[in-house]
């Protein structure tokens, strides 16, 4: 099952309003105006940590345990903005995972797990001034089909036979459901009936899981865009604002659909390790540094990139070092992922509580700041940054290597040169003024998070188009049209020895320059970069999401005074397409 509570600024995109619509102007901001915060049951349900699931796998999920966590959330975390209590998979299944349904084919609470039913649980959550979340897999669960004889609520003449394809093709990430055929009006009536049930129970959040394209499935059988659209319509019909979150590993090729019909979407696989802790660094916390950048431009008010559960509060049970816990929390905050933990909130350790309740870090996630993205390549030492509306920068340093290393943030990668004042957000202290850069020694998998306030001057650069006739192309490298590129063209086919050499790159003084590389890459690719025929450094470029989107990172290149060459060599692999290179007028 998917994990967690699930999973550009509004002016730059068109969004349907149904999921985030409110019933009156006094009801507060629209849903998902900022990333949601809270707790989800899945991490503890799925862990084999001693004592968590004493009655067998996934047995943790009970009314008593959910309300215990809700009480702890209200006491410890609500003052910091955490408000959702999200019940994940299994609320309608017994301890043997056998499902229960009502007479209309809708999931029914298991009497042992939730003896008072789901409405009573939502009522108790609301009594603590919190919001209640619930979960469903996409499609018609096979066990609800009942030979096609089950009637659909409030839909005279409709049965489960009418709402699925005659060949009973399966769908979702586990093939646990029949694909719904929305060409029959009865199908929408079924989704309406589920949405109305949740609204009547008082739920504020729905995680729809196993959604494709995504969830490791592709093709027409697993295309659930129509399901998501039907859910948006059904929620609007109920008149109750219900946040719709999609899970898991959603296909970025359908990002516009997810943005149109939902409030959030999981961009990656489950963060849980399904082992004797909640997570581990390698499986799969560290994946997010590679997988998040392609999605960054799609996040904004109304819908956010969901990096999955943030398990940093329980120490030993989390399965992470302190450095890893801080890096995990840092990335989630700066990427503006929803912040929902799967920890045992009754047993938060002091360090975990400090990570979850740092108001300066939460403000980066919840304020009007944009999501950060890498300004350096996806190498083991990385810098992520965002320019904030007030002119400051959010800057994070990450050492993703397995041993300690120094990481530098050069002000040139932020677009200015000279001095800047630096505030350390985790340690809540001003570090003073730094000239041109800040360098920090970081432990393995360590990080720092700063607010940088420029005191210098804007950086000026000289641009060099990749496709310029003065450059040298080798191997398969060739010029191609590119509507998103600066002059409408790029150099592509940089693979298996293909090279691009920029000739006549002129600088006044010798030194190391932070060279801005604008590129296009539908997947993560690497290139060997060198100057003047010298030794090359291999850099990995994060995916830009597709082959029509340009992004940029800065790479350090050592140049001599006068005329230079800069070469991008694909080596034995595949390099990104190159749009242009900007070389600053001064070195770092």
Keywords:
588 residues, alpha+beta, Immunoglobulin-like, Jelly Rolls, 3 domains, 8-stranded parallel β-sheet, 6-stranded antiparallel β-sheet, 12 helices, globular
In one word, what is the shape? globular
Give the assembly state of these chains: single chain
Q: What summary fits the major beta sheet?
A: 8 strands, parallel
Cα radius of gyration in angstroms: 25 Å
What is the CATH first-level class name of the largest domain? Alpha Beta
Q: Give the strand order, joined by hyphens, for the main sheet.
A: 10-9-8-7-3-2-1-11
- Going by CATH, the homologous superfamily of the largest domain would be Aldolase class I
Intertermini distance? 48 Å
* Structural class estimated from helices and strands: alpha+beta
Strand content: 25-35%
Question: The CATH topology of the largest domain, please?
Answer: TIM Barrel
Q: Per CATH, which architecture of the largest domain? A: Alpha-Beta Barrel
Low-pLDDT stretches are 2-28
Number of domains: 3
Count of alpha/pi helices: 12
Count of strand segments: 32
Please tell me the overall pLDDT: 95
The share of residues in helices is 10-25%
Characterization of this structure:
With 588 residues, the chain is of the alpha+beta class. The chain folds into 3 domains: 10-371, Alpha-Beta Barrel (TIM Barrel), CATH 3.20.20.70; 381-458, Immunoglobulin-like, CATH 2.60.40.1180; 461-584, Sandwich (Jelly Rolls). It is 19% helix and 28% strand. It has 12 helices and 32 strands. The strands form 8 sheets. The protein has an 8-stranded parallel sheet. Helix 6 (185-201) crosses helix 7, helix 7 (225-238) runs parallel beside helix 8 (255-261) and helix 10 runs parallel beside helix 11. The longest helix has 17 residues, at 185-201. It is globular.
């Amino acid at each position: 099952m998917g994990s967690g509570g699930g999973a550009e600024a509004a002016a730059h995109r068109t969004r349907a309003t149904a999921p985030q619509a409110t019933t009156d102007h006094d009801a507060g901001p629209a849903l998902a105006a900022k990333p949601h915060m809270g707790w989800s049951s899945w991490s503890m349900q799925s862990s084999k940590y001693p004592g968590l699931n004493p009655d067998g796998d996934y047995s943790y999920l009970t009314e008593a345990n959910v309300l215990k966590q809700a009480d702890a959330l209200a006491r410890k975390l609500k003052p910091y903005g955490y408000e959702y209590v999200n019940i994940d998979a299994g609320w309608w299944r017994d301890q043997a995972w056998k499902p229960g349904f009502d007479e209309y084919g809708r999931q029914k609470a298991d009497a042992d797990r939730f003896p008072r039913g789901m409405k009573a649980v939502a009522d108790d959550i609301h009594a603590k001034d919190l919001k209640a979340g619930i979960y469903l897999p996409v499609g018609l669960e096979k066990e609800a089909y009942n030979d096609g004889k089950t009637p659909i609520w409030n839909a005279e003449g409709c049965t489960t036979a009418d709402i699925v394809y005659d060949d009973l093709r399966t769908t979702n990430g586990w093939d646990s459901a029949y694909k719904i055929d929305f060409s029959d009006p009865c199908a929408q009536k079924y989704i309406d009936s589920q949405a109305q049930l949740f609204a009547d129970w008082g739920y504020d959040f729905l995680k729809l899981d196993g959604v494709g394209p995504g969830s490791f499935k592709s093709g027409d059988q697993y295309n659930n865009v129509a399901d998501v659209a039907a859910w948006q319509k059904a929620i609007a019909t109920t008149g109750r604002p219900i946040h719709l979150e999609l899970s898991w590993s959603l296909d970025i090729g359908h990002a516009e659909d997810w943005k149109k019909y939902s409030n959030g979407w999981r961009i990656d696989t489950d963060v849980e390790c399904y082992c004797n802790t909640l997570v581990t660094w390698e499986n799969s916390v560290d994946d997010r540094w590679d997988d998040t950048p392609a999605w960054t431009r799609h996040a904004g008010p109304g819908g956010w990139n969901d990096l999955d559960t943030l398990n940093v509060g329980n120490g030993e049970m989390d399965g992470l070092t302190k450095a890893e816990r801080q890096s995990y929390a840092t990335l989630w905050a700066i990427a503006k992922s929803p912040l929902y933990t799967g920890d045992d909130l009754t047993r938060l350790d002091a360090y975990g509580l400090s990570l979850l309740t740092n108001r300066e870090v939460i403000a980066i996630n919840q304020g009007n700041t944009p999501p950060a993205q890498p300004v350096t390549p996806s190498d083991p030492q990385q810098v992520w940054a965002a320019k904030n509306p007030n002119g400051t920068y959010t800057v994070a340093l990450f050492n993703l290597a397995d041993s300690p290393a120094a990481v530098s943030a050069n002000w040139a990668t932020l677009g200015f040169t000279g001095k800047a004042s630096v505030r350390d957000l985790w340690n809540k202290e001003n570090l003073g003024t730094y000239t041109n850069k800040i360098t920090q020694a970081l432990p393995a998998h360590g990080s720092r998070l700063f607010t940088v306030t420029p005191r210098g001057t804007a950086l000026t650069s000289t641009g060099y188009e990749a496709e310029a006739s003065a450059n040298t192309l080798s191997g398969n490298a060739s010029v191609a049209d590119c509507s998103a590129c600066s002059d409408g063209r790029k150099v592509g086919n940089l693979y298996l020895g293909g090279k691009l050499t920029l000739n006549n790159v002129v600088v006044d003084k010798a030194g190391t320059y932070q060279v801005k590389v604008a590129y296009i890459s539908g997947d993560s690719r690497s290139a060997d970069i060198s100057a003047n025929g010298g030794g090359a450094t291999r850099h990995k470029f994060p995916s830009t999401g597709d082959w029509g989107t340009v992004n940029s990172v800065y790479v350090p290149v050592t140049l001599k005074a006068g005329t230079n060459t800069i070469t991008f060599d694909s080596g034995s692999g595949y390099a990104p397409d190159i749009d242009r290179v900007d070389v600053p007028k001064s070195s770092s």
